[in-house]
Design brief:
Shape: globular
Strand content: 15-25%
Low-confidence stretches: 1-24
Distance between the termini: 49 Å
Helix content: 25-40%
Number of strands: 8
Radius of gyration: 22 Å
Largest sheet: 8 strands, mixed
Structural class: alpha/beta
């Protein structure tokens, strides 16, 4: 009986040492690269996206190191190992070295913005139209029947493109389209149509450090989804909870 207690004590001690070692091997920070999305990933560290990331990593002793760059540059930084992860990636959209975790952290509501005199688009009818979206977003991989599309570097001229007939619909996530519409002189001319939802992931660097951080991300997300601890963050930012 005493021998069993000794062995049990040794096993518990080894388990504790192993856990402490794993904790000590975690980097003290995670370098996250992201485009600036209003009220989501602002350059000053505010926004729903950054609040979620802080809830995931900081309780584990990993602080956020934020780099605000255009989306395509965030991918490049991740692939070169200059960032640990890029924010706002659709699964498998990035070509080249990248490691995706099991869990997503949010969902994008993908919409089509067009003039009201255009037909209402659907997923099945998108192939009939000339589409435009931001450079590097790769919606052709996630929307069926897409044939005629172009990518633009900036969103500033989107409304002009639609008004002049240079494109039929602009495709983007709902918050980005709402941002554009908020600056439209005649918003009543336009219609926003829901198309689909796409889960959002962190794209981690395919390195030992990236894999360690991705494992931590999945462990924490499993805990946070089970406990519902992320729900108040989405409620505070008045956004749909993506795990129901």
């Amino acid at each position: 009986m005493r021998m069993r207690q000794v062995w049990l004590g040794m096993l518990l001690m080894l388990s504790a040492l192993s856990g402490a070692q794993a904790q000590s091997e975690l980097p003290g920070e995670i370098r996250l690269a992201s485009e600036i999305w209003e009220a989501y990933t602002e350059a000053d560290g505010t926004g729903l996206g950054w609040d979620v990331m802080r809830e995931v990593f900081e309780p584990a002793g990993v602080r956020l190191d934020i780099h605000s760059v255009p989306y395509t540059r965030s991918v490049g930084l991740m692939q070169r190992g200059e960032a640990d992860a890029c924010v706002g990636s659709y699964r498998d959209e990035v070509e080249g070295p990248v490691f995706y975790p099991k869990h997503h952290y949010d969902r994008d509501q993908i919409v089509a913005l067009g003039l009201k005199d255009k037909p209402v688009p659907t997923l099945d009818s998108l192939g009939k139209y000339r589409l435009v979206w931001g450079r590097g977003y790769g919606y052709e991989e996630y929307l069926p029947n897409v044939r005629d599309y172009r990518e633009v570097q900036r969103r500033d001229g989107i409304l002009g493109m639609l008004e002049l007939g240079h494109a039929d619909f602009y495709i983007d996530a709902r918050p980005e389209v709402d941002y554009i519409m908020g600056r439209a002189a005649k918003p009543q001319q336009y219609r926003v149509t829901n198309l689909t939802q796409l889960p959002l992931y962190l794209g981690f660097a395919d390195t030992p450090r990236g894999h360690t951080l991705a494992k931590l991300f999945d462990q924490r997300m499993t805990q946070l989804i089970a406990s519902g601890e992320l729900r108040p963050i989405f409620e505070r930012w008045q956004q749909p909870y993506p795990f129901d």
